[in-house]
């Protein structure tokens, strides 16, 4: 009688079906994206340094986990295979030596003695032998009743061991050796079994794999620590790499910000030949070209400003003489002495009107050059706004055409002359293009969100005309703007509204233009009640900035209709 070949015979083994709870079952759990997970998923990492560190960390973590997992799996299979092969081979030899020598119908004592002798080996496993008595009853002999009985053998393994394998007649390996790894109370075990051919007893072994499991746990901890160290090292390397990459980018950002602030001489120090160095060179070339272009534009603008200023100053002397002559002619016309030929009277009146218009244009051009050169100054004083508006209207004989809605006692710290210029331009423009009555309302509004502390003076000038075309609204404050190219000439100089908005800006305020839902255009002047952040200048050049008011009785707005 010969024992069956062992399953460890390198390719001849057959595994029994594993039962639930066996080590071969893998438990896969999905990720629970609860409220915290959804919140974290909604975060967006805007820091490039953080993103680089995370990418490096993920790559290192993936590589370390993959390497550790492969190493653990290979070591696990090697350790378990070596242990089970040694145990099964030893069990096969012991079964051949002791169980095969038993009589065909052994007693329980004989089976127990044989099982004890088999268990007394270097592999330290428990054995149970099953035989059949002469009466046909099953007889079991255990090496240790407390650790291993037939009930501990999985049903699938018992069925596999007891099944005769199909083969050639007289095949000595009609019964094979089967094995299975199980877990009991957290302890892994190797259970194997085989039947002696020719009707001999059936033997089962049970070997604890706790020592191997402890070794594998130690290996897993070692691999985990190595993975953690690798991740920390990768994070440090990523931080260093990010610093190397981001330092030039940070310098480039600072240089670009300075360039945006107008410091066109800003340049980057370039070292190396990599892409970042090439980017720095490109920035330097761009900054140099931009500085050259801006310098050229500034030179042209300065030349143009000097030309306008010089021309305005040069025209003032002949205009003074011409104005004196036209005033004499106007007095002669008003006196009706007959000294002026009636045939040339229309021409004389035309010359008088054009002289006034030219004089106003020259004064406006000089005012514009002051704003462009940044030499315009405020002479602040505390005035009653209602009295200021009344004086402006009365000086231009607009009392019958203007409705004033302003309470007395609203005091503001402004430049009276410049406020008069603003009001004259806005009201005159409304009368010329919108017609009377023009309504002027004064209110004091608290600061809105985002504005500096302090109330603001709000003056609205509304006419009852057709309003301003939508395509014209963005340009009403542009210099010399004409709403229609077919109407290049108007009674005004085309600078009135531009000068008005510049005077508002120097006060720290602004002027807005819109169309009223009830019809007509509405110009809204907003000024700080305390004069804004501008300090009063008592040493203003009155010889250059104290000339005639740029506003004429007809207003100086552009052709807005």
From TrEMBL:
Keywords: Kinase, Membrane, Phosphoprotein, Transferase, Transmembrane, Transmembrane helix, Two-component regulatory system. It catalyses: ATP + protein L-histidine = ADP + protein N-phospho-L-histidine. One of its GO terms (molecular function) is kinase activity. Residues 1-33, 529-561 are annotated as: Disordered. Residues 243-295 form the HAMP domain. Residues 310-531 form the Histidine kinase domain. It comes from the Bacteria. It holds the Pfam family HAMP. The chain crosses the membrane at residues 52-74. Residues 19-30 have a biased composition (Acidic residues). PANTHER family: SENSOR HISTIDINE KINASE TRCS, SENSOR HISTIDINE KINASE YKOH. This is histidine kinase.
